[in-house]
Structure prediction request, 197 residues.
Amino acid sequence: MAGIDKMLSRLNIGYIDLLLLHQQVGDYMGAWRDMEKAVAQGKVRSIGLSNFESERLEEVCEGASIKPAALQVECHPYYQQNDLKKRLAPYGTVIESWYPIGHGDAGLINEPVFTELAKKYGKTNVQIILRWHIQAGNVIFPKSTNPQHIRDNFDIFDFALTAEEMEKIAALDCGKRFYHATLEEQERSFSLWAPAD
Prediction:
């Protein structure tokens, strides 16, 4: 709770729209309960998880009074997280994709299907990927510091991919991740910066 208050003070805002519990390490259940209290106190509007892909996901969801609004994980056409979406369905939790364009991987961005669709719709390959995410029900936040890329990232709501086109993109799912961290590595990282009790 002290961390939430510190965030509010640092941001100089009245409430946080979405607060994520970033790692499945430490006293994550205690942290989740404090996040639920922050919602009850009006300090936070929605709460979610990040990087919870182990059985700890169900532990939090089953023990939660407020189910996670979102689960932030790596998700892109090469790693579509379909099994994880099935696990989340009973809780109404959506995937929030980080690395939505595969960490900018040229192989992914330049897949022929994206080039073909970009030409058809008068868009860029990245815009086709981002549109796929939206139609697949994923929340996205593509990172860019380039003003034109930022404008392009918003310009994906004036067209829609067909069911057949969505199926072609679904066929790209090959289980390829660009970020790898085991639960043990997450716990080791957490122990390096966590304050002593």
